[in-house]
Automatic annotation (TrEMBL):
<protein>
    <submittedName>
        <fullName>Uncharacterized protein</fullName>
    </submittedName>
</protein>
<feature type="signal peptide">
    <location>
        <begin position="1"/>
        <end position="20"/>
    </location>
</feature>
<keyword id="KW-0732">Signal</keyword>
<dbReference type="InterPro" id="IPR019734">
    <property type="entry name" value="TPR_rpt"/>
</dbReference>
<feature type="repeat" description="TPR">
    <location>
        <begin position="100"/>
        <end position="133"/>
    </location>
</feature>
<dbReference type="GO" id="GO:0000030">
    <property type="term" value="F:mannosyltransferase activity"/>
</dbReference>
<dbReference type="GO" id="GO:0035269">
    <property type="term" value="P:protein O-linked glycosylation via mannose"/>
</dbReference>
<keyword id="KW-0802">TPR repeat</keyword>
<dbReference type="InterPro" id="IPR011990">
    <property type="entry name" value="TPR-like_helical_dom_sf"/>
</dbReference>
Length: 242
C-alpha cells in the first residue's frame, strides 16, 4: 500500500514538468549530471520551485523524496533506460544535493556511456561525502581500469590499485574489488597473484566474473588450482571443472 501511495505522490510531483521532460532528449540538460551544471532560465527555475513545493507537500522530508526518486532511477537503469534514469537521479539531486548516492549514480550512468574521465569526477564528489564506502571505491577503481585499458598509463593503473586496496581494507569480502585487483595484477604481469585474487573473488561471488578475462589469464599462466579449463566456456558452470 505504501508503494502505491508513493507512486501516486510521484505522479503528482511529476505533473510539475512537461512531457518533454518526462521523455528527455539525449542532449537535454535534464539527462546530464546535475542538469549539466548550467544556469537555468527563469522558466526552468520556476518549474524547479514548483516541483520542490509539490514534493514538500507530499513527502515528509526532501531526503525521503530524494530517496524515492533514486529508487525509480535504479529501476530505469536496471532496464537499460539510462537517460530516463539520469533524469530521475537529477530530480533526487535537486531535492537533496547532499545525497552521496546521486553523485554515485551520476558516475555509474556516465561510465556506462563510456566517459570514465567524467565518471571519476562524479565519484570523487560521492567519496567526499562517504570516503570509506567499499563498493563506491570499487566503482572508482573500475573507471580507472577502463582508462588504463584505453591509454596504458601506469599512473592510471596505480590509481586503480590504490582505490582497490582501500576498498578491500574496508571490506575484505568485497568480491568485486578482489576481482578488479586480480585484473590489476594481470596488467602488472603478476599472474600468480592475479589467480590468487580471482579465486578469492569467485569463492565469494562468481557471477561478476568476465570469462573473457579468465581466458586471457589462462593464456599467460594455467590456473594453479585447476579450477578453470583451458578453453572458453559456454556458461559459468562449464568453466569450472567438476
Amino acid at each position: 500500500m505504501k508503494k502505491i501511495v508513493l507512486s501516486l505522490l510521484a505522479i503528482a510531483c511529476s505533473l510539475s514538468f512537461s512531457m518533454a521532460q518526462e521523455q528527455p532528449a539525449t542532449q537535454s540538460i535534464k539527462v546530464q549530471p546535475m542538469f549539466g551544471g548550467k544556469s537555468k532560465s527563469e522558466a526552468e527555475q520556476k518549474q524547479d520551485e514548483k516541483f520542490l513545493t509539490s514534493c514538500d507537500k507530499n513527502f515528509s522530508t526532501r531526503q525521503e523524496a530524494s530517496k524515492f526518486f533514486m529508487e525509480r532511477g535504479w529501476e530505469y537503469l536496471n532496464e537499460g533506460q539510462t537517460d530516463t534514469a539520469m533524469y530521475r537521479f537529477n530530480l533526487a539531486w535537486l531535492l537533496d544535493p547532499g545525497n552521496k548516492d546521486t553523485y554515485w549514480a551520476f558516475g555509474l550512468v556516465t561510465a556506462a556511456k563510456g566517459d570514465n574521465g567524467q565518471a571519476i569526477g562524479l565519484y570523487d564528489k560521492a567519496l567526499a561525502i562517504d570516503p570509506k564506502n567499499s563498493l563506491l571505491l570499487s566503482d572508482m577503481a573500475t573507471s580507472y581500469l577502463a582508462l588504463y585499458k584505453e591509454k596504458k598509463k601506469k599512473k592510471t593503473l596505480k590509481k586503480a590499485a590504490g582505490y582497490l586496496a582501500t576498498a578491500t581494507a574496508q571490506d575484505p569480502a568485497n568480491a568485486y574489488a578482489l576481482y578488479n585487483t586480480s585484473m590489476v595484477k594481470y596488467y602488472e604481469k603478476k599472474y600468480a597473484e592475479a589467480w590468487d585474487y580471482l579465486h578469492k573473488s569467485r569463492a565469494i561471488n562468481m557471477t561478476q566474473i568476465d570469462y573473457g578475462y579468465v581466458m586471457e589469464l589462462v593464456a599467460e599462466m594455467p590456473d594453479p588450482q585447476g579450477f578453470f579449463k583451458q578453453t572458453a566456456p559456454e556458461s559459468a558452470t562449464d568453466t569450472a571443472q567438476n
